[in-house]
Amino acid sequence: MRRRRHQQGFTLLELLVTMGVTVVGLMGVLSLYVVTARSNASGAHGGEAVAIAEATVEEIRGMAIPELLVAYSAPALPLDVSLDTVAGRAGTTFDRRVQVTELTATSTNLVKIRVEVSWTESGATAGAEGGIHDRRISLELIRTASEAL
Questions:
Q1: Is residue 149 part of a domain?
Q2: For residue 81, what are the domain limits?
Q3: Distance CA 146, CA 71 (A)
Q4: Nearest Cα residue to 117 out of 57, 44, 40
Q5: pTM across the whole model
Q6: Most buried by CB count within 10 Å: which residue of 7, 13, 33, 83?
Q7: How far apart are the C-alpha atoms of 54 and 43, rounded to whole Å?
């Protein structure tokens, strides 16, 4: 057989190089997708935590101080209590903490209500790896002590 001088097609080496470059490019796109998905999940958890904190603040805001003390079995202010854990979407659990303190330096009729909601990202245990996966948001409001608002 006679060899053709101007053969058409690709050599095996050319195909392997092309496939290698394609795989490297696809790995870059895949890593971008993973980072974007994690970022979206983190934002969703933050939004969910804010909604839980707002609901807790509104629940407490609707109680008079004597009702609040009875509800949380506290003899007097200041109040610092951990509430029940709230289950969120995708298996995330949110821990809630409420602190109520009198603002006697400003007025004898004002109290500060602080609600903290904390959770961990990536399914980690709280405090693991130096706490790099731990997240917390806080909402505060000041209201009068004499009545529910």
A1: no
A2: 12-144
A3: 17
A4: 57
A5: 0.72
A6: 83
A7: 17
106 Cβ partners below 8 Å, 6+ apart?
A: none
pLDDT digits (tens, 9 = 90+) for 80-95: 999 999 998 878 899 9
Phi, psi at residue 18, to the nearest 5°? -60, -45
Strand order in the sheet with 93-102: 79-87, 93-102, 110-120, 134-144
CB of 55 within 8 A of CB of 47? Answer: no
Q: Does the residue 51 lie in any domain?
A: yes
Locate all alpha helices (DSSP H) within 1-100, ordered by sequence: 12-61, 65-71
* Residue 123 included in any domain: yes
- Which of 46, 60, 37 minimizes the C-alpha distance to 115? 60
Of 126 and 21, more confident: 21
* 122: alpha, beta or left? (left if phi > 0; alpha if psi -120 to 50): left
- Reported as half-sphere exposure (CB side, CA atoms, 13 A), residue 144 has a value of 4
- Residue 19 CB contacts under 8 Å (≥ 6 apart), including other chains: none
Residue 3 lies in a domain: no
Contacting residues for 78 by C-beta, under 8 A, at least 6 apart:
99, 100, 101, 102
Torsion on CA atoms 21, 25, 31, 32, rounded to nearest 10: 170
How confident is the model over 12-45, as pLDDT tens digits?
Answer: 899 999 999 999 999 999 999 988 887 787 888 8
